[in-house]
Amino acid sequence: MKFATVFVVLVAVLGSCYLATAQTHNYFFGARVPYDTLVNQTTVIQSSSFLRVKSLNVDYPLKGQRGRNITAIYVYDRLGGGRGGFATITNGGIGQNYTRIHLKTQRGNGMNFQVEIYGR
Q: Coiled-coil intervals in this record (predicted)?
């Protein structure tokens, strides 16, 4: 009986450790609907720095470009393993013709994001 209890606790601990390390930080704002087109796609890669947090802003539309009505913003964390960064919309966004997305790393880690903006 004691062995079974220890075994169950061990499996639970290992399972929770796996789930904690297997998570990604993907973000999905809005929703794609038929006739939406990909209006901007940006890949952001930054290497890690020891005990530092890095951040970067992704803006749409690019300078000199006319913005289209944004219907969805997808931010894919391609680093994985729970080491990826975080994304927040700091300006504009869904229903607007402009946006600013703030990307931030975890302390001591890098970032590898793919940002897709869909609109009409």
A: none
pTM for this structure? 0.77
All residue ranges of the chain with pLDDT < 50 are: 6-11, 13-21
pLDDT at 22: 54
Residues 6+ apart with CB under 8 A from 60: 39, 40, 67, 70, 92, 98, 99, 100, 117
- Cα 96 → chain centroid: 20
SS3 at position 93: coil
CA-based nearest residue to 105, from 20, 22, 25: 25
Is the omega angle on the peptide bond into residue 61 within 30 degrees of 0, that is, cis? yes
Side by side, the strands of the sheet bearing 111-119 are 27-30, 70-77, 111-119, 37-46
CA distance 111 to 98: 23
pLDDT at 89: 96
